[in-house]
Structures are given as C-alpha cells and as structure tokens.
Amino acid sequence: MVKNTTIYDIAREAEVSVSTVSRVLNDTAPVKASTRDKIMKVIEKHKFQPNALARSLIKKETGTIAMIVPDITNPFFPEVFYGANQEARDKGYTFFLCNTSGDDDRESEYLTILREKRVDGIIFIGGRINLANCPPELVQEVQEAAETIPVVLVNGNLAKTKFHRVYSDEAVGAALATQHLIDLGHRDIAFIGGLDFMTTTIQKVKAVKKTLEDQQLTLRKEWIQYGEFSIQAGRDLMNKLLDDSEHRPTAVLCVNDFTAIGAIKAASERGLHVPEDISIVGFDDSPLSTAVIPELTTVTQNTHELGKYAVERIFQINNGMPTKRTTVLTPKLIVRQSSGPAPVKRK
Amino acid sequence: MVKNTTIYDIAREAEVSVSTVSRVLNDTAPVKASTRDKIMKVIEKHKFQPNALARSLIKKETGTIAMIVPDITNPFFPEVFYGANQEARDKGYTFFLCNTSGDDDRESEYLTILREKRVDGIIFIGGRINLANCPPELVQEVQEAAETIPVVLVNGNLAKTKFHRVYSDEAVGAALATQHLIDLGHRDIAFIGGLDFMTTTIQKVKAVKKTLEDQQLTLRKEWIQYGEFSIQAGRDLMNKLLDDSEHRPTAVLCVNDFTAIGAIKAASERGLHVPEDISIVGFDDSPLSTAVIPELTTVTQNTHELGKYAVERIFQINNGMPTKRTTVLTPKLIVRQSSGPAPVKRK
DNA sequence: CTATTTCATGAAATGGGTTTCATTAATCTG
DNA sequence: CAGATTAATGAAACCCATTTCATGAAATAG
C-alpha cells in the first residue's frame, strides 16, 4: 500500500509552512488569496486527505459516536438507528454500531473499546443497562464511562441513576391502546408477551391495569401472560390464552409487534378471524406491522425521533449547551385492521 | 470533563519509563515480574485506558472497518451486518455503519470521511456502486480508495472492475425457485418487482427465463412487471397482473420478500387464497418471511455468511494472506406455506 | 574467569496533525 | 506621516502512544 501524503508533503511542495496549510484546511485564520490558491492546487493534485487520527488526538474529539444495541436484527433498532444517523450526519458525527447479540460480556467489552477509541458519545438502547434489574457492576462501569463520555440511555429506565435519557412514554402508549379497545366495546382484555422483569413490560401492564380500573374494568390475572418478545412466544402465549375456552378475551394487547404477529397466527390457526372474533393490538409500529394480514393496529414509539434526540443530546453536551436530562416522547396510536368492535356476546 | 490519564502519568507514578509501560501493555518484550506488577497496579488504580488514536497513528491500523448500506431499515441489511459484526469481533474490528438513505452524494461523502479516519476496510453492500449502471465518477472514486484501503463489494457486480467481491448467486436462487414451482405443476409463472436496471433484477429475470425455456415453457412479456422493491410496489404490480383476467398466472416469483408480501396482500384483497389459488415465492428469507400468513416460501441468501466472508476478506488482505477476489455463495430454497400445487385448470 | 548472549530498561525519534507565540508586512487611525 | 492595528506567515510545542537504539546488568558458554 502506498504511503499517505501528509501535511508536511503539501507544505514542502507549496513552499509554505505546515501552519499555513493547516489554516487553509480549517479556515482558522486569514491566508492570502494567492497563497491559498497555491496550497489548494497542491492539495487537489495529491488528493490529500488529512489524517483524522492525528487531528482527533490533539483536538480531543473524534467526530464519532456509538450505538450499542442488543440485536440489530430486530427491526425496531434499525429504525432508531436510522433517525440517529440522520441527525448524526447533520452534526458531523459518524456512527459505530455495536451489536451485543445478547451476549453479556459484550456490553462492557464494547464499552472499553469505545472509550479507548475516544468516541464523542455513546447511546445505549435496549440491552441489560436499560433493565430494571441491571447488574450493579455494569451500572458502575457505565457510570464511570459517563464521567468522560456523554452517555444517553434510550428507552430504558435505570431509576436511581441520573443518566441522560430519551424515551417514549410506554405507559401512555399502553393506556392509549387500552382505551381504544374499550371504546370499541371490549370488556374482556388480555395482555401478552414480555419478560416480567423488564421495564417495558412492567410499565405497560401497569398502565393497562390502571386504564381498565379507572373504568370499573379489571385485568384478570390469568390474562397476563409473560414471555419472550418473539413471534414464537406470541404464538405460544396466545395459545395458552385460547386454551381456556371458558374465559376467552375479546381483545389482546401485546408487548410488541412480534408477539402480536404470533398472536394473530395462533388465532388464525384456530380458525378465529382477526378482528371479527378477536382484536389484537401490537406495539412499536415496526415495518412488520404493515406487512402482515391483517395490518396491525399498533402504537408508534417515534423511533426516528428517539434516535434523533439521543444524538442531539450528545451534541449539546459536547458543546457545553444547556440540556435537560430527560426527554419524553408521546407515543401515538395507529389504528389499522387488527382491531375492531367487540363481538356480540352470546351467552 | 476530567483529563485522561496517559501512559506518561502511569510511568511517572510507577517510577519507570513509558517504554516499559508500553511493553507491559502490549507484551512486546520481557519485563521483570516485580516491575510489571508495580505498573499493573498503577494502571488498575487509574483505570488507565490507552488512547487508541495515538496507537493507531503510529501503528497505521485502526481496528475499525465500515459498512456502507443504502437503507438499514430494509431487514436484509441488518442480517448481513449481523454476520459481519460477529466476524469483526473475532478479528478485533469495530464497525462503522454508514446509512446513505439512497442519497446520492452520501456515498462519496462517507468515503472521504472513512478514508480520513483511516479505517482498515470498507464494505459496500447495495447502493449505487453495486449497480450495473453505476456512474463512472463514483467507480473512479471507489477505485482510488481501494488503492489504500481494502474494499469489498457485497452482492453487487461491477463487471469490468476487479474489486474484491462476495455475493450469493442470485441466478441459482431464482432458478431454484422457478424449478420448485414447475415441480409443483405450475406452467403459468410470472415475475414481479425490482427496477429493471438493477443487477439483482436482471439476473433473476434471466435465470427464470432460462429455467422455463429449458423445459419448453415461456415467460410471457406481460408477466414481467418491474418496479420498486417495496411492499406497496409488490401490491401494485400484483394488481396489474390480476387485472388481466384473461391470462392469469398460477404462480408468481418476486424479486424480494417485500414485494412478495405486497403480492400476497393484493391476492387476498381480491379473495384469492395463497397458495390454493396462486403460489407466491419471495427472495431473501428476511425475518418478514415467517411473520406473514401464510409464511413465505423464499430463497435464502446466506445473509450472515455474506457479511462474514466480507470481513474475513478484509482481514486477510490486511494481513498479507492470500485471498481470492471473488467468493460466491449458493442460495437455498426454503419452502414454507406460500407455494403449493398448481390449481387444476378449468377451461 | 572471561566472552558472549539474553534480559531489563531508558532516551529519543516517530506518526501527522493543531495551536500558541513571535515576527514582519500591510493597512488603518488621527 | 508616526503610531496602532490587523494580516500573513513560520517555528516550535503539543497530543499520546509505539518502536528503535543504546546501555548496563544478569545469565550462560567455553
């Protein structure tokens, strides 16, 4: 591989000092027009590309931020990344994407690497750090990192810490979805999916319960089915629900779109029609939601904004601008085809 | 923000020279056990994290590679990224993910940034550079980059250039899918989706045609419908096909899973059952394919391997290991629910 | 016991930029 | 037109590691 041209090569050939070349490159001080032209010509001739490493070393900023995700294969994360990346470009950042694949050591491993690489900010989305029961060592580690690097937690909730956070208010979203079903005449509403120790699950269940109770309705204990977040889990949990032919809900709220799709599958495998026989509502408004038949009624989490605000926050911190520590986005209900009027009761 | 500790701080406190600290850090030369211990203690005390910028500057390697994708929101790309990222971790690389969002300048913009950041390799997947009709300026630019940085093209095909390439043989995949339909008794087969100037479309159409002709069947001109790669496009194109009630295919091959899903939607909106009335086959085996009802018969592109081999190639180039310029993966057919025996003809 | 390796370590150069400080030339002020 | 600014540029320090070269100490060879 060819040796890279340096600012010294340019200076020599243009018969000026490196300082002047640097000034032309960064426009940090006035340079005589004729000198500038001469330098520019040499730069273009060699297609000179200043070494960002050297620059970052002294400037103490790399123009690089990172996002640590648990599973890039889950379509929710690419959506957030998309929004983040748009904003990052505007602000002059390039993105490291670190996929932990649910591997436990991976988070702290990446954390070390990113710190060594002196990234200008780290966004955590999902993953253990965003869990209510996150191991204290990891919290400790991330907290240490946050002392030198801006850290933003997206859609998580580490209560007693004071990390920067951006999240969408899942409780509001769940309440919205619940109310939607009530308005459609449903009285027998169930909730499925999500691990019971994860914030995202806990908050939703709480909100569903509250919304129902506010209107003298109850969420039966047997109608809360916890589990994974996958299609398969959704199918299994829905089947459990349907196995009890005695008590069968007329509507099911799901922790995310994946489980909702699984639920639809389980229902249609039993010959039930959605939404005529049973209404199903998802959460996330992932690309999947318009892919299935029937299209999913779901709650949008403003995924792009989630990413956008996280990056914006990092930018503000790095530039000494005033910021709030918490940004809350309000989810919106998106009514499509999988929810409909409650079936008439035949006693 | 606190000042970072440097190797000099460590050296001073441990009462040795920086060279010795460096030796301990990198294990590049023998150090007396007692000295090593003393140094390690200081390192741990300060949680010293050596500055990767300074290291990279002199080592001329950054441990960083980049992937440039046109749309991370399309589930095909996260899958490839996933495989690439696994391999990258094994080889000690961290990943920049650059999303061009189909914005034309973005590719060359990112290219410049990545070169300045001195990444150890660049993977292009999709995007203009992989088009048969890629503008020559861009080819030129990427070629220049390839002189100093290993560049690998994934699933593309810039014929006359000699870039490193990794791709799955889409022609084989399309032939596989076609044969599958023929075996099921279908004779009236159509193809929908994909822009007609994109390699991925061209190759598939060609392969479908050839497979049919080899068995004395033909692909009617009206049954090739070009368009975008989206669900909506799939729906529209399928509707066009179905509008002609005179000639109606019994099976439809789609350029990707998105369009296949759109096609299923169009069919079921008209009361047609898949696969009883019409078979539909997708391409890519994206996560979507098991999400829809019926689950999609599709062709897997070995997405993870695609990414894996691309990273492996970069690693090999950087370490002066012998490599081939081209790696071809063979797609596999995955039969699920959306394809079935051809309906009995009622003349 | 002397000669030759090997071990253990430090000083200084290097990588490729940015920035401060100093100096001279050019322009402005009154 | 003298004095005060401002423009234009260069020299050198700095950022923080790695690595080469040199040197003295310890270990091995003969």
Poorly predicted residue ranges of chain A:
none
Q: Give the topology string of chain A: H per helix, E per strand.
A: HHHHEHEHEHEEHEHEHEHEEHEE
Rg value of chain A: 26 Å
Largest interface by Cβ-Cβ < 8 Å? A-B, 57 and 56 residues
Spatially, the strands of the biggest sheet of chain A line up as: 2-1-3-4-5-11
Describe this structure in words.
The structure is a homodimer of 347-residue chains. With 347 residues, chain A is α/β, with parallel strands linked by helices. Helices cover 44% and strands 14% of the residues of chain A. In chain A, strands 2-1-3-4-5-11 form a six-stranded parallel β-sheet, sandwiched between helices. At the A-B interface, helix 4, helix 5, strand 2, helix 6 and helix 7 of A face helix 4, helix 5, strand 2, helix 6 and helix 7 of B. Chain A binds a DNA duplex (30 and 30 nucleotides) through helix 2 and helix 4.
Brief synopsis:
The structure is a homodimer of 347-residue chains. With 347 residues, chain A is α/β, with parallel strands linked by helices.
